[in-house]
């Protein structure tokens, strides 16, 4: 870990009982880092991601799965080369900076995301996972390259019906996953189910 020209750091933790820590100040000294992928549990770092992450201006892939971050610092906007941002942690929603739309190279956005201002991210190819209420506020017509979308419904959300017209405008969509709570409904499928039943 002494090579300042290191381009990739990958860490996978198969032992879920093992608590591993990240030395973020040290990580941020690798100025030429392109890939940083940490798949493991570190209870110290729930909350806000370290501001120093913005120093890694060459970063293209940032993976921090199972970390429990709830917020990203505004310094993340300095990562203008970033293509993949993977912050998925089961049960932990992530709040992105308001100007996340400035990350114009972003292709893959993965995590449990709250409010999103991503209408102008025309390079975005996959979005996993966004809640139904946040998705209803996004203009899908501008996401011209989105091919994979995963939407979930939060408990006690105001949006009780998933509107299919929000996805039919995604002309390049190849894979759609919708996870609804027991109290929600998928009106589009319900309509066609009734049509099929009437044909029997």
From TrEMBL:
Coiled-coil stretches: none
Which Pfam family, giving just one, matches this sequence?
LRR_14
Lineage top rank: taxon: Eukaryota
Can you give the residue ranges of the Disease resistance R13L4/SHOC-2-like LRR domain? 8-156
What keywords appear on the UniProt entry? Repeat
Stored SUPFAM superfamilies: L domain-like
Which InterPro entries has this protein been placed in?
A: LRR_dom_sf (IPR032675), LRR_R13L4/SHOC2-like (IPR055414)
Q: What is this protein called?
A: Disease resistance R13L4/SHOC-2-like LRR domain-containing protein
| Native source species | Dipteronia dyeriana
